[in-house]
Amino acid sequence: MSFKTVPQMFQHLVRERPTLKTFYTKTENGWEGIDLAELQVMVEDFANGLKNLGINDNDKVAIIGANSRKWSISDYAIAHIRAVSVPVYPTLIPTQSQYVVEHSESKIAIVQDEVQLDKVYPLINDANSNLHTIIIMDNSYNGGKENIVKFADVFNMKDQVHDIRAISATVEENDLLTLIYTSGTTGNPKGVMLSHSNICNNLLSINGNMEAAMELNPELKPADGIERFVSFLPISHSFERVGGHYYIFSIGTSIYYAEMNFTPEILFENIREVRPTFLTAVPRIFEKIHAKILDSVASMTGVKRKLADWSIAVGLQTVPYRQKSQDLPFMLGLKYKIADKLVLNKFRAALGGKVRACSSGGSALSKEVGSFFCGIGITIIEGYGLTETSPVMTVGHSDFFKFGTVGKAIPGVEVKIQPDGEIVCRGHNVMMGYYKNEEATNEAIIDGWFHSGDIGEFDEDGLLRITDRKKSLIVTSGGKNVAPQPMEVSLTSNKYIEQCNVVGDDRNFISALIVPSKENLLSWAEEQGLASLDYEALCAHDQTYEHFDAIVKTVMTNFSRYESVRKFTLIADEWTVDRGELTPKMSIKRKVVTEKHKAEIDAMYNTKDLPKVATDDEGQLFG
Prior knowledge:
Distance between the termini: 36 Å
Shape: globular
Structural class: alpha/beta
CATH class of the largest domain: Alpha Beta
Oligomer: single chain
CATH topology of the largest domain: Rossmann fold
Helix content: 25-40%
Number of helices: 21
Strand order of the largest sheet: 4-3-5-6-7
Largest sheet: 5 strands, parallel
Number of strands: 27
CATH architecture of the largest domain: 3-Layer(aba) Sandwich
Number of domains: 3
């Protein structure tokens, strides 16, 4: 497998396997796919339509929507005409979507439905915006707005017929392929510029490890030889974009798109129907499956419960051997075969029963969850990287891995640890820079080395371990990047909030520790008839929590759902410099504060000990 641009990769696969069906969508008649020869025609016709709509070399086209066949056709079509795709999370609020589209200078936005259309439509008449046309994927749209084109109509725009295949052949490896906007620690997101070379070299460099993972459990290989994959992580995220969109496609895998607006229940139903052979997910997905299986075991009684517990224990005993690709001792192997036949294979059925391996990224996978899946016969390969590194920097290998580590540098990439512990890398994966932000680019890339902002170390086997975050950016267990400072600034702008520390790293949602303004809270308490309470009791009172609940809910309306504070705990004692909780500049020392209040933070994520909540919503799949 060798290619230098995305169109080269696409055209090569079409030539090799023209009858392979992929891009499956669930309809009333079941899962329906299209073969690669037909897909090629659709991509080239759509690309021709974009040319007729005025898209030329290096022009930006935004794509706003959930994973779908139409999203992927749009992306490949944009790449074929030397234009630049700009993926936008469909969960962003209007002001955030407008920022990305305007800052990227996108001329066309391809949107999923009327909801996404309404978010960016004001830019059509904005003198500061380049947006002149919106393509809506929902072909039933009949809203009557000007400058709107239906997705189906783009294929038939042939006033001028362009030789798309010839144009795609002119794409060069150092051409800009995509702009992916990623949250910064403060202010607006930055547009990461990734070239065809960045992405294609990343795909080729991870191929060896992925192929090795796919060789695990050969007895589960599909009889027809066709690998199957369910795409459900947000395709706007670099992890899914590269792993579950480009890479999986490049090796000739049939891709199935999870149903739109799926719930966890619908997703797991889709997975059981498709029976994927490989799965890419964030830790939160594995956490949910793990919890669901353990809940089912907890509901068992008698012999059935004892057998399940015994089987899980046997599976965990095999983990150290699996981590080193060693054969199981005879007796353990015999016990495992019994446990697998009676119980463990039923646990694998939660993922369709055919998954041979999984990849996990976006945040850290816990040892408990990783060991459990390994014990039931599903190896989860962890990797590490950022959008700025295309995104893979290091990846584990199925022949030798350790929980809590993220493997070794991929071929063509160097990774080292700075004297202050920061992880830096250089190689083909390092971004071209931040779009229209030379200052931020120069801060991030110094003498060719990209500075990750993460702290790490290599263990005795040369495997990278992430130990801390140099920057304050939070990464949830769903892989979402969340900047805490804008939320903290907004919350502390309220007169009743003195200090705030937003948390949520490797958790499934965002929460906060809030220190009230003592003077203002005491005045409020007097008005509410609570003046007789001492201050600590006042901070713990239900009526006080209801008051702050209303404040937090109001403030969070200015943030997307995934980056909103969902639970909070009130802290009576103000954080100070003297106690080491603040820097001399009065900035919160996050590590110190989170360690001091570990019990309160854990309680916010413990369903058996629920704190007061800022929303009664249980949270989305991706945290």
